[in-house]
Amino acid sequence: MESGGLEELVARDADHECDGVGPMQVCVRVISVADLPTRFGDFRIVAFWNNRDAKEHVAIVRGDIRDAENVPTRLHSECLTGDAIGSLRCDCRDQLETALERIGTFERGLVLYLRQEGRGIGLVNKVRAYALQDEGLDTVEANRALGFRDDERDYAIAAHMITSLDVRSIELMTNNPQKIEQLSRHGVQVSRRLPHVIPPNSHNRFYLETKRDRSGHWIDFAGKPHLMEQSDPVVIEGMSPQPE
Fold first, then answer.
1. Does residue 213 carry a pLDDT above 80?
2. Annotation says 64 is catalytic
3. Which of 77, 81, 91, 227 is deepest in the core (most CB within 10 A)?
């Protein structure tokens, strides 16, 4: 599989320093690049260093994305219980696998795997939130009961990663308007949104309904496909949440 010139980014970033992105002034560097054959297709994996924490975020790259426009892109926040263990309390594993499977059929594409467990509250606090949900709270109420916002994630680091990969514009696979708003604010050109709806199961339907009704996610349970075709004319018209 062609490298797309990604190795050049390692040397380019060796001494990279900048003012950073977002309120935390996050600066990232490309550290290493390697091949990553998967059950979803052949990818390359790009490892990043950042100046704010010890978390090691990665990009999973399909094809030549440097200087490319309208690159199908998915931001995926780490979920140990879903991604690794197959928890049915969320749709995280299905979202990740569906994104990789779909991007594996494209000429180019990008998945950022971000170490933002539990919407940014961490694994231990996520388990605490689960316990509160077992008592009847929804995900928003559980986070607030623990002293957190509904969603503690910040996508400044994702914006810098996309910029560091020399991607000119993206088509973002998401149901979350905050991802579009934050990336756009940090200088990433989001040319269109690709809906990424996963059918619910009996364990996560209330969780997904809460994301839709309380967090403003665009989620339609009326039989929409997992992912709209790349050619679908879905454009971003403001940030107000509304069903597809």
1. no
2. no
3. 91
State the catalytic residue, choosing from 119, 151, 154, 192.
Answer: 151
By percentage, how much of the chain surpasses pLDDT 70?
A: 89
- Write down the residue that tokens 């995926």 correspond to: 76
pLDDT exceeds 70 at position 158 = yes
Catalytic site residue from 153, 154, 192, 193 = 153
Instruction: Give me the torsion for CA of 200, 202, 204, 210, rounded to 10°.
Output: 90
151 classed as catalytic: yes
User: Cα separation of 129 and 121, whole Å?
Assistant: 10
In the numeric block, which tokens belong to residue 238? Answer: 């403001």
Q: Which domains does the chain have, with CATH numbers?
A: 7-116+154-215 (3.40.50.10990), 122-152 (no CATH)
Indicate the DSSP class of residue 120: G
d(CA 206, CA 169): 34
pLDDT, mean over the chain:
87
CA distance 176 to 152: 14
